[in-house]
Amino acid sequence: MQITAIIVAAGSGSRAAGSAPAPVPKQFQSLGGRSVLAWSAAAFLADSRVARLVVVHAPGARDQVLAALGGAAGQPVVLVEGGLTRTDSVRAGLAAADITSSWVMVHDAARPGLDQDTLDALVTALEAGADGAVPVLPVADALWQAEGPELVAARDRTGLVRVQTPQAFRLEALAAAYAALPDGAAAADDAEVARLAGLRVVSVPGSARLDKITWPGDHARMEQTLAPLVPATGTGYDAHRLGPGTHVTLCGVEIAHDGGLVGHSDADVAWHALCDAIYGALCEGDIGKAFPPSDPQWKGAPSRVFLEHAGQRVRDRGGRLVHVDVTVVCEAPRVGPHREAMRAATAAVLGIPVTRVSVKATTTEKMGYTGRGEGIAALASATVLLPDTGG
Fold it and tell me: pTM value?
């Protein structure tokens, strides 16, 4: 038996954002290094029974969907525009279904925790003769009717369940049920459409992993469930010799000095060391790999470009920068009077609170090249939290 999977991804994500539509709808937001939408798409595509995956998107959002799916298009992935309501969007998805499929599963893009156990349970229910099957969870909380902030009356929760997706049906039966639905009608979900048509719908055990990203804070909780973050630490070291000049740049701050640091870029030795620390935590090499000194486009470049890239790589990997520490090694200039400006500049570039940025300095008691004033060195460490890939 083959399955057409339909992911409804046409919403604006306004409730998850708080009030107005989010700048990036929740289905396209990053969760553990890939989009919320991509989690469910990957689960469906990993099942050999899925003959076609239909993604229903909002008008004009095709390019966002392609980016969220990593560019996947064509068989077995089909993209179609949805309508004003979920009911209209499911109708559009059903119209694009693989007609050779016996079954269809309709899933909300905002439920990224789809797993093989749920798919198997739904298939088993259909194989046993049900017209439809849905995953459910019992209602554990007390239920009350409220008028604004005031509680009015308690409601009996006996027999009530929380219904999740994907919801699975015989394809022909669900298509007929939607066709029989009056124009303009809007159902809560596919199970309601099926029951209105007289179909027999059964339940299978649901999962907390299938909870929907709906309200502010749901995204962070789901990320901890699906992609828990683990700590990683990197260290960096850099040194630049001193030459003619009137100032040195350390952590983005120009400090008056009787010489200048020599380098291919602006020679900000502190930020270079910090870049290496961040790349080290990511296991992505060093600053020279990301920005080869042989490339003329980086000649004289401000080091904030390099540090911004390092910080963005953490975000691209679904991670979070927790703390950075920079130590400048020199006899002169004095770093102390500029420490707070250096911390603030570093925090601003990385997009983290200044309380997570440490900057300090030391000398080598006149020993070595830094002690003789021939150059300045810097050491750095970075602690990041990265999704646990299990690898």
Answer: 0.71
